[in-house]
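[recover] target loaded
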């Protein structure tokens, strides 16, 4: 069995196939994930770079995503945190080896990590009421490409296991996976157990 894997750049469409674990170990394992999965290296994200850290325990998940303008992650721009319950559904009809999964986003927090007005405005965060280095709960208000929880409290994603690690769907440029019709059609490279 193969899973479809796409390059890290959000806008990249080049894909390759990786061997996936069997269905027997796939869905059952995904429903009971426990542990921390991290980017094995800095990844290209949204015209910059970033790292992902996912934590799974007792049917819950959380994400810490940190973005920077440089691959050394010295020019950091923001950190985003979210989490909630998750539900692994049926095998994907589009991406072999992946499962349709809904990740609840019960809360959304962002920390602005730059004080450069042009960068803040360019990211669409100038009107979010953020203070540099202070985490802000944007669950009710939203900010930039993050809709409020009341508007978008679910991410309709893909999840898969391979010999490389744990894969999620390739996010669209507008970051909108709020409904099932927005579910990705390809996978990102793996995050790995820490």
């Amino acid at each position: 069995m193969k899973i479809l894997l796409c390059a890290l750049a959000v806008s990249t469409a080049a894909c390759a196939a990786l061997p996936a674990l069997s269905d027997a170990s796939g869905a059952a394992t995904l429903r009971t994930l426990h542990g921390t999965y991290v980017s094995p290296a800095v990844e290209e994200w949204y015209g910059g770079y970033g790292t992902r850290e996912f934590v799974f325990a007792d049917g819950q998940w959380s994400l810490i995503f940190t973005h920077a303008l440089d691959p050394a992650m010295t020019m950091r721009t923001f950190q985003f945190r979210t989490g909630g319950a998750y539900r692994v559904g049926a095998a994907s009809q589009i991406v072999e080896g992946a499962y349709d999964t809904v990740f609840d986003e019960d809360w959304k927090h962002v920390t602005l990590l730059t004080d450069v007005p042009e960068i803040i405005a360019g990211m669409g965060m100038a009107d979010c009421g953020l203070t540099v280095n202070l985490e802000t709960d944007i669950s009710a208000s939203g900010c930039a490409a993050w809709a409020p929880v009341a508007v978008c409290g679910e991410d309709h994603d893909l999840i898969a296991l391979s010999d490389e690690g744990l894969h999620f769907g390739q996010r669209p440029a507008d970051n909108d996976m709020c409904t099932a019709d927005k579910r990705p059609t390809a996978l990102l490279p793996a995050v790995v157990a820490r």
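[recover] notes: Helices lie at 23-31, 117-122.
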